[in-house]
Amino acid sequence: MEYLNNVLKASNGDAYSNLELEENNKLPFLDVMVSKNVQETSNLQTNVYRKKTNTNRYLNFDSNHHLSVKKGIIKSLYDRAKLVSSNLNIFDQEKDHIKNILKENAYPEGFVEKTLLQIENPPNNNQNRQNPTSNMTIPYIPRISERLKRLGNEFNIRTIFKTNNTLRSILTHTKPKNKDQNEKNCIYKIPCQCGKHYIGETSRPLDVRVKEHKNYVRDYQVDRSHLAKHVWDNGHQINWKQASIIQKEPNFGKRKLKESACIKLNVNNCFSAETASLNATWLPLLQKDVNNKKLKIL
């Protein structure tokens, strides 16, 4: 095994290869611990494997969540134990361990026992159950939400609870948004590591157009994008996140002319091709507009 591991490392230095050997006749694989029965060498046993960093922390019973969520946690732990345990003795040991974990997370013993009993002996009422006519999603508020759910059941409406204020909703939107990415009808620029820019125009949101350019580069479609051709011809890297708007113009004809004007005025700093013909005699007038800030350049 060590020889094979060394061969894999030598064949590709960038590839990550890690060899893990069994200890005490045990070897973990994902969330399963595979054990070798010493008395019967041909027999392997499996049970739930937990990493050393596992803290046994789950949703606390006192948290502001509906009971169905807490029952779901118990069911997921039970189902995994049943699936992984290779015999009844191991399964019973795992069930005892689950009960201890839930006790540490403030789950009442009676609630756990009742939930496990419901899991092991599910009611057979699928024949009388009707499909809900519609769904209703409401914030979970203790006691009030349960009443609304019972009211919805009378009209065959399925009620789904949601939690509004969570750490995820508070902490995952702290990064400022780039408003340029949602703008439409604009002339835009995308910088390259070489210091030059690609200049183009689009009637759609800028982020949609940028994604198209990324796909052109990825798929080697150099005939559809001068940006892709520049990347593949020179091996440069594009700074996609720095794509920005030069100027907005809702009129298609004017937007094409302004795009060509920006390309001509920045001929030494861009690698774009004109899509609209613009006579060179207009350049002095365009330069005047630049000086008067009526037309932007890089």
Automatic annotation (TrEMBL):
<feature type="domain" description="Helix-turn-helix">
    <location>
        <begin position="57"/>
        <end position="115"/>
    </location>
</feature>
<dbReference type="InterPro" id="IPR058912">
    <property type="entry name" value="HTH_animal"/>
</dbReference>
<dbReference type="InterPro" id="IPR035901">
    <property type="entry name" value="GIY-YIG_endonuc_sf"/>
</dbReference>
<protein>
    <recommendedName>
        <fullName>Helix-turn-helix domain-containing protein</fullName>
    </recommendedName>
</protein>
<dbReference type="Pfam" id="PF26215">
    <property type="entry name" value="HTH_animal"/>
</dbReference>
